[in-house]
């Protein structure tokens, strides 16, 4: 296995963009029942308008150039290509921090936090809060490309991230992640305990929520915010987890539709941007810039990774390797307005040393409320920096 780290530049062939335009123009639209809104999925009128914007107004080359303004690299780890952004701070004493996205996200989520986290002085902050950032594309996602073999669950990703940070020369570092990244970051704290100074998560679920029914006596002790989170979790389990069941059981079947139809790929992702952003009752563009959303979708479409991204759900649900012993790494949790983490459950398996709750922002915090996420990451790691210096 080569340990070479190779500079990477995005350069999508024009033929691929032309093919996308043809497919969007020739989209075959289904019928729709009247008056159902978003209750049964993405409304026809909304998606038609968004596709027309994608087809006629969205400028991939402009967003490609923006992405290429960030240092990017690839390397092979455990037989898998790994693409990552690597932005070093101008501050020599910056803390290394690896940030992991989830599904249906990508490295595009973090474009608005890179500057403030790496160069806080230039953004009105304190040099002491600076980070060197490593932002990988999960194996099977985006420019990491499709996975080449079975077994790529979040635990294996964490082991790969430990190797990546070692390969980059970072011996002590922090980890941050949301959604699937909130699986990877705590796992990285387990597999590289002596190296990971702290773990910060948002959009946290497994390990941070109740497992099974909650007893009435426990509910009686809940705060109003915790009751609201439990209700959101119940609604998700009852009515919002269809995508999870499909991707965790038959990822190859859904891959054919998503890989062949850009409209299908867009609908599959935009539904989650509508349901998981804040406020979830509004259109996704209320919370997330439309071009950012489409650039995120493009990373799935242009790299042909809809199916391999779905495979991670299958791998996680069939791995049989969930940890039951409590983690010891200091852990910070940011709970945004659409999140479901509840502290009393998080504390059973994690060393919670920091807990924040916010009344705005949702699942895609780095896109929706970058100011809050930046401030919370700084606050959490600031204490760990002080402890490391003492």
Number of strands: 9
Low-confidence stretches: none
Principal-axis shape equals globular
Helix count equals: 16
Between the first and last Cα atoms, what is the distance in angstroms? 40 Å
Mean pLDDT over the full residue set: 96
Quick one: biggest sheet? 9 strands, mixed
Strand content: 5-15%
- What order do the strands of the largest sheet run in, or round the barrel if closed? 1-2-3-5-4-6-7-8-9
What are its keywords?
single chain; alpha/beta; 16 helices
Describe this structure in words.
The chain is of the alpha/beta class. Helix content is 45%, strand content 14%. The chain is built from 16 helices and nine strands. It has helices spanning 14-25, 44-56, 60-68, 111-118, 154-167, 181-191, 216-220, 224-240, 242-249, 251-260, 262-275, 290-303, 306-317, 343-346, 365-368, 370-389, and strands at residues 6-7, 72-77, 80-87, 95-100, 131-136, 173-178, 196-202, 330-335, 351-357. Strands 1-2-3-5-4-6-7-8-9 form a nine-stranded mixed beta sheet, sandwiched between helices. α4 (111-118) runs parallel beside α16 and α10 crosses α11. The radius of gyration is 20 Å and the shape is globular.
Describe this structure in a few short sentences.
By secondary structure, the chain is an alpha/beta fold. The protein has 16 helices and nine strands.
């Amino acid at each position: 296995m080569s340990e070479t780290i190779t500079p990477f530049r995005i350069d999508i062939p024009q033929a691929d963009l032309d093919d996308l335009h043809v497919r969007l123009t020739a989209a075959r639209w289904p019928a729709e029942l009247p008056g159902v809104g978003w209750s049964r999925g993405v409304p026809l009128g909304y998606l038609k308008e968004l596709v027309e914007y994608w087809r006629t107004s969205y400028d991939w080359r402009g967003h490609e150039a923006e992405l290429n303004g960030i240092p990017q690299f690839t390397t092979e780890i455990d037989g898998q290509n790994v693409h990552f952004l690597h932005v070093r701070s101008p501050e020599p004493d910056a803390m290394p921090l690896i940030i992991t996205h989830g599904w249906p996200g990508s490295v595009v989520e973090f474009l608005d936090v890179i500057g403030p986290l790496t160069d806080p002085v230039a953004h009105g902050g304190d040099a002491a809060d600076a980070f060197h950032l490593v932002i990988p594309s999960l194996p099977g996602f985006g420019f990491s490309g499709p996975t080449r073999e079975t077994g790529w669950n979040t635990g294996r990703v964490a082991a790969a991230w430990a190797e990546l940070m070692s390969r980059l020369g970072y011996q002590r570092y922090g980890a941050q992640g949301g959604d699937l990244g909130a699986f990877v970051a705590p796992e990285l704290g387990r597999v590289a305990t002596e190296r990971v100074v702290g773990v910060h998560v948002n959009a946290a679920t497994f390990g941070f929520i109740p497992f099974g029914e909650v007893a009435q006596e426990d509910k009686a002790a809940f705060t109003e915010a915790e009751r609201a989170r439990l209700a959101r979790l119940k609604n998700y389990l009852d009515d919002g987890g269809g995508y999870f069941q499909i991707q965790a059981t038959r990822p190859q079947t859904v891959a054919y539709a998503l890989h062949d139809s850009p409209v299908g790929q867009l609908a599959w992702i935009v539904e989650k941007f509508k349901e998981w952003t804040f406020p979830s009752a509004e259109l996704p563009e209320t919370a997330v810039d439309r071009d950012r959303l489409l650039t995120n979708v493009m990373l799935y479409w242009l790299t042909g990774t809809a199916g391999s991204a779905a495979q991670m759900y299958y791998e996680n649900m069939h791995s049989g390797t969930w940890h039951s012993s409590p983690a010891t790494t200091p852990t910070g949790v940011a709970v945004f307005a659409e999140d479901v983490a509840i502290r009393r459950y998080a504390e059973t398996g994690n060393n919670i040393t920091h807990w924040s709750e916010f009344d705005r922002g949702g699942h895609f915090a780095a896109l929706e409320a970058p100011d809050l996420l930046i401030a919370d990451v700084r606050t959490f790691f600031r204490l760990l920096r002080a402890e490391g210096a003492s």
